[in-house]
Design goal:
The protein has helices at residues 12-23, 39-49, 62-70, 87-95, 113-121, 132-135, 138-148, 157-165, 170-173, 211-214, 224-232, 234-247, 285-293, 307-310, 324-335, 339-355, 363-375, 385-405, and strands at residues 2-7, 28-35, 53-56, 83-86, 102-105, 125-128, 152-154, 186-193, 254-258, 264-270, 275-279. It is of the alpha/beta class. It has a domain at 2-150: NAD(P)-binding Rossmann-like Domain (Rossmann fold, 3-Layer(aba) Sandwich), CATH 3.40.50.720. The chain has a 7-stranded parallel sheet, with helices on both faces. A 4-stranded mixed sheet has the order 9-8-10-11, covered by helices on one side. β2, α2 (39-49) and β3 form a beta-alpha-beta unit. α4 packs across α5 and α11 crosses α16. It is globular, with a radius of gyration of 21 Å.
Length: 417
C-alpha cells in the first residue's frame, strides 16, 4: 500500500485522485490533504479518508475547520481529528509529511510551487500536475531533484502519454525521471492538441470571439482558465516547455499536432523512426492513476477504448496565424532562465483580464508578448527561487499596467461574453 499526500484535494486533480484512492483502498492510503476554502467538501474528504494531517491555505480558518470536525454528528464522528495546520508553512508540512511516499500536486499556479519544492527536498516522489513546478521554476527544481533523489511522475495526459510510451526504453530502465538529461533513443515528441474552442473557426473570425465562445471546449470539461489556454493553444506551448525539462529534448524536437478526437494523448518517435502512441478516452483519471501506481498497472472497470466506435483519427498542423501564443511559448522556452516564468504569469493575468471582459481574446497574445519583450533586458539565466517568485509578481503587475495604458485593448460596453 502506498501512502499519498494530496495537494489541492478539493480541486479537479485532487478530487479525481481521491476517487482513485477510494476505488483502490488496498493500493493507496491518504495520509495528508491540503485545500483552500471549500470546507464542505474538505470535511467530507476527511471523513472518508481519515488523513493524519490536513493543511488549509489560510491560518485564520483553522478554528472554523476544527469546530466543524469537532461538531460532527455522532454517527459521523472521526476516530481522531487530524493534525490541522495552516498558511504557507502548513502546506509545506503536509507536502513533506513523514509517512507520505508520493505527493500529488494539484494546487494550481505558483501557490503550488513552494509545497512541491518542500516535498522534493523531503525526498518524496511527485505525481506532477502543477505546471509551474517546471515551467516557471525548472532551473530551480532540477538541481533539487538531483540532490534529493525524488522522482517526478507526470500526471497530465500528454506528458503521461510520453512517459508511458517510453517504458521499456533505456530511459525508463535507468529510472531517469525528470533529470533534464537528454533521453537515450528518443528523437522527437509529438504533443497532441484538440485545437480548443476555435479549431474550426477561420482566423479572421476570432475578432468576434466572446468569453462564452472561448470557454466552450468541444471535448473536455475543464475550468475556464485552462479552457481559454486551450483556445489560444498556450496550454500546448506551456507543455512544450514542460516536456523539454522532463525529457531533455531540444525545442526543435518537440512538435504540436492538432488531433480533434483527443484519443491519442501524445506520441514519441525513436531513433530508428518507430513511432509509439498512447491512446485512451479523454479522462484525466488514467494519467493520475499511472503516476500513482508506477511501475505497476492496476486493473480498473473504466470504459474501454473502442476504435470502431470512434471511426477515424485525424491530424493537422496548427495554424500559426490563429495560435500566436504557441510561438510565444517556444520563444520563451528557448530564452530559458526567468522568461518561462514571465510568460506563464503574464498569460495567467491576461486570461484573467479577458475573462473579466477587460480585453479582447486577440489581445491575450499581444499583452503577453509586450511583457516578455520588456523582460528581455532583465532576464536572469540562472535564477533562484526568490527570482522566480519576483518575476512572477512583476509580470502580473505589468499586464495590468499594460491594459491601463492601452485603452484600445479595453472591451467596450457592447461586448458581452
Amino acid at each position: 500500500m502506498k501512502a499519498i499526500s494530496v495537494l489541492g484535494s478539493t480541486g479537479s486533480i485532487g478530487t479525481q485522485t481521491l476517487e482513485i484512492a477510494q476505488e483502490c483502498p488496498e493500493k493507496f492510503k491518504v495520509v495528508a490533504l491540503t485545500a483552500g476554502k471549500n470546507f464542505n467538501l474538505l470535511v467530507e474528504q476527511i471523513k472518508q479518508h481519515q488523513p493524519e494531517v490536513v493543511a488549509i491555505a489560510e491560518q485564520d480558518d483553522l478554528t472554523e475547520l476544527h469546530q466543524r470536525l469537532k461538531n460532527l454528528p455522532d454517527n459521523e464522528k472521526l476516530k481522531s481529528i487530524p493534525h490541522l495546520v495552516g498558511g504557507t508553512e502548513g502546506l509545506n508540512i503536509a507536502a513533506s509529511w513523514e509517512t507520505a511516499e508520493l505527493v500529488v500536486t494539484g494546487i494550481v499556479g505558483c501557490a503550488g510551487l513552494l509545497p512541491t519544492l518542500s516535498a522534493i527536498k523531503a525526498g518524496k516522489d511527485i505525481a506532477l500536475a502543477n505546471k509551474e513546478t517546471l515551467i516557471a521554476a525548472g532551473p530551480v527544481v532540477l538541481p533539487e531533484l538531483k540532490v534529493s533523489g525524488s522522482r517526478l511522475f507526470p500526471a497530465d495526459s500528454e506528458h503521461s502519454a510520453i512517459f508511458q510510451c517510453l517504458q521499456g526504453t533505456p530511459w525508463a530502465t535507468n529510472a531517469r525521471l525528470s533529470t533534464g538529461i537528454p533521453t537515450p533513443g528518443l528523437r522527437n515528441i509529438q504533443l497532441t492538441a484538440s485545437g480548443g474552442a476555435f479549431r474550426d473557426w477561420p482566423a479572421e473570425k476570432l475578432k468576434n470571439a466572446t468569453v462564452k465562445d472561448a470557454t466552450s471546449h468541444p471535448n473536455w470539461s475543464m475550468g475556464k482558465k485552462i479552457t481559454v489556454d486551450s483556445a489560444t493553444l498556450m496550454n500546448k506551448g506551456l507543455e512544450v516547455i514542460e516536456a523539454h525539462y522532463l525529457f531533455g529534448l531540444d525545442y526543435e524536437n518537440i512538435e504540436i499536432i492538432i488531433h480533434p478526437q483527443s484519443i491519442i494523448h501524445s506520441m514519441i518517435e525513436l531513433a530508428d523512426s518507430s513511432v509509439l502512441a498512447q491512446m485512451g478516452w479523454p479522462d484525466m483519471k488514467l494519467p493520475i492513476l499511472y503516476a500513482m501506481s508506477w511501475p505497476h498497472r492496476i486493473q480498473t472497470q473504466w470504459k474501454r477504448l473502442n476504435l470502431p466506435e470512434i471511426g477515424q483519427l485525424t491530424f493537422n498542423n496548427p495554424d500559426k496565424s490563429k495560435y500566436p501564443c504557441m510561438e510565444l511559448a517556444y520563444d520563451a522556452g528557448r530564452s530559458s532562465g526567468t522568461m518561462p516564468a514571465v510568460l506563464n504569469a503574464a498569460n495567467e493575468e491576461a486570461v484573467a483580464q479577458f475573462l473579466e471582459e477587460k480585453i479582447h481574446f486577440q489581445n491575450i497574445p499581444k499583452v503577453i508578448e509586450s511583457v516578455c519583450e520588456i523582460h528581455k533586458q532583465d532576464l536572469m539565466s540562472n535564477p533562484q527561487l526568490n527570482d522566480v517568485l519576483e518575476v512572477d509578481n512583476w509580470a502580473r503587475r505589468e499586464v495590468k499596467t499594460y491594459v491601463q495604458r492601452n485603452p484600445h485593448t479595453i472591451i467596450n460596453s457592447t461586448f458581452k461574453g
